[in-house]
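**Sequence, structure tokens**
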Amino acid sequence: MKLHRSLGRNNARKVDGRSFLPSIALLLVVFIVGTTYMVRYDYTRTMTDARNQLASVSELFEQSLDSKFAIANVQMWNLIKLYASRPSIAIEDVEARYGDLMRQTLQQIDQIDSLLLLDTDGTVTWASVPQMAGMQLADRRYFQTALELGLNEYAVGVPIYSSRTGRRLTPIAWPVVSPSGEVLGVIASSLSETYFSDALTLEDIPEDMHVEILAANGAPVFESQELAQEAGKKEIVESRKISTLGLTINVTRSHNSVLLPYYKRTLGFLLIATTLFVKSISMAMKLNAKSIQLSSSLKQSRETNHKLLAAQREFNAIFDSVGEGIVIFSKDGKFNRTNRIARELLSQQDNDLAIEQLRAMLPDFSKIPKELHVHRCTTPDGRAIKCRMMKLTSNNQDVAYCVLANATDEERLAAARDSFVTSVNHELRTPLTSLSGSLNLLENRFSDGIPDPAKRLIVLASRNAERLLMLVNDILTLQAIDQGQFNLRTRPVMASDALEEAVASNSGYGFNAQVNLACERSEEAIINADPDRLQQIFSNLISNAIKYSPPGSTVNIGAVQNGDALTFYVRDNGPGIPSVARERLFDRFALPVHDGDVQVSGTGLGLAITKQLVERQDGNISFDTQTAVDDTGSTGTVFFVTFPCHIAHTAPTEEDT
């Protein structure tokens, strides 16, 4: 039986191979015919494009030369008409009357590079080139031709080589015709090679293109570049007449340079086509072979299904053994799943009962966010559970994914962490206080005998020690507030006394920063507050205002009573607070408010502590700010601290809160 099956498979392969032969032969014929047609079509198109390009270049060049010379011709005839209107002027007076005009006309006409005035005898009576004055040019063909011309006509001569300039020039002459039609002389000039090269400014002209301009007798007037002439090599030439000048433009490209891109395209096309053809044949043969392997693939598919089932069992075992509780449920309840830890935390053995109990403690399914959210809940038996939940989409269905943890353990961990932070901060504050005091003592008592570089190092070390000590104190203050260990000793405080003390305490800091501190308004109101903490509030707000105020400005403080409330304010003329930072201004360790060139260094805790101190004394803190972006004409920030006024019923007493 096995031998029979093997023979059957071999026969099937032979039959399939024979059925492929006619298809492969047909594909080969189509490939050869199609490739030949494409190569031939590309050759014809390449030659046609080359001829069209040469014809277009010659036409554009002819138009450019014609239009430029037409402008020069008009300017020249304007000069001739002006000169011919006074035929009685003596030769010696030409320079005095028309010399500047002729030179100016020569400068305005870019197409010519010299100007000669000849009488009817061929003598040069005036020349832009002084060396040519008085020369006899009566034998020049262009001079003789110009004498026979009439109004608005000109003659172009045979190109000549100028030994003076070392360039090839094309003579051109205009008859000087009086208003009565009499020829009074000839104005001669020349078209230089620069005139023709300036007209050849087309950006799409290939480097191997040769432009040649010939006179009527075949003499070359201008050549753009040398064209390498190879024996037996063909050239593509397009010619065009310049009727106004009697010249002929020949634009030439070598046959090989035109066909070089064609050869490259043909080679690339043949390589790609041959590669694709071979790959298609190879693909067809591979597909035939793969059809034979289909039965074995089906068998492998069944084995894969068995492996998937085994993997699912492994996943279920891992899911049930995870150290945290996991609960997954859908809105309609068709997809519910919990692991062992989750059921233990919820004190339920049944999967559905555990999910039902958890859903009763969580918000409605529609209110569960798609981002991770922490929700603290309490089980019926009084245990605290922290649930990290979010909404996911799986198979076009929304499901809630919850991770449960025993909150009691985390709360104990948080308490231990707070205790550790407090201990570390206390351990830091003692040596820092000693270090700061020692540095200050060293700076004050022994500064005379310390070199200047050492003084700068001591000042730097003292400043950083004080900054670090301030950071530790701020952290301890916030820690005490968070743990409910922050005590306030409130008593009635006169607003005017508090403001006077604030000015006295912070004026020195303002003096060092070249910023004045002034109390512009005070009230005889009384509030219940802790005097030390109130001054701490003032110190934080005033120091910030001084830091961001420009030198020479003034920080104003004051108090305004409004009914049963008293509002202190601190106003500066600084850059203001950007809109993107206003929401997080009172956050702890907030990101810098300004850019690096404006931002002042600090701990990032001052305003957070100030807000806590104000609110724990039944007050409120707010601010109003203007920046250059707001386009209000001024910048600055005002902080407002509002406390309820004190109503005295008995003598003032000290109270712990």
DSSP finds 13 helices and 23 strands in the chain. The first strand starts at residue 116 and ends at 118.
